[in-house]
Design goal:
Helix Hairpins, alpha+beta, 10 strands, three-stranded antiparallel β-sheet, five-stranded mixed β-sheet, 8 helices, Heat Shock Protein 90
Length: 323
Amino acid sequence: KKTIAYCNSAFEEFIELSREKVLGKKINDFFFHDSWFINLVNKSIDNNKNIFHNNLEIINTKKKSIQVSLSIFKIEETENFFSIILNNLSETNNLKKQFNFEKAAQSASSLVAMLSHEIKNPLSGIKGASQLIKKRKVLQEKDFFLINLIDTETNRIMELLNTLEEFTDERPITKKYVNINQTLRYVKNTSEATFNKKRILFVENYDPSLPKVFGNKAQLIQLFLNIIKNSCEEVDSDNGVIKITTKYEHSNLPLTIYIEDNGNGIPEHLKDNLFDTFVTNKINGRGLGLSISAKIVQSHFGSIIFDSYKGKTVFKVAFKHKG
């Protein structure tokens, strides 16, 4: 009959149904959207054969897609009982992403501090030399062009280094209660004005009862500007959509913000190190935006994770509720 004789509480949670509604029912009743998974179960039982699968996408009764590892094997000393073990890989992947962002925030600080110190000294000498050359009485037109180029590029690098130094500043930040919905509206309006030529559709869904976040408003603005700016750059003109959602979720970090876009997605080779410094797929990108975002989230004792494939990228930022 291939009916379910036992299930644990994790399985109840997994399919979002109570044990009473599961026992005695067929596997097909709960995974009728997933013929591949059902086929593996039938193959194992019909052929009395153990089956293992490291990475399988299954679809539950809610039509929700979940990445799992699968083990099906016959229970020893029984004739008709098989064990089916599903391990939810989504949670494992989220933990991995969480670790990657924390690792990136820590390693980036030490790297940037070293670069800033080593580069600033010779830059000061170069800038001083260009100013001395300007004071000479006889100079050709091409000399002025080269001197101005030196000045421009030196200033550009100095601005970059100042940004990096802010990134490595370990001094305690000033915090107060911040209305995250208002902060996101401000960031959305700023981004909409900056990318107005792309005619992006912004969809906002704010929880009006969301408690305030205990944090630094300027840093929180910078955090969400970095994420939404990336989304704006990734979506196509005229049909780009960016969704901003806030909600209260019952967890250790209940104040959650979702930023979703319908762009091209994050390339696979960047995903594992996305929050590292200097990681970018943009031609003129510095690869600092998400590293800075990771550090800001870390300084607020929050978390930032993402999920991405072609046509959809979602960033989830979560903070504590400091009552």
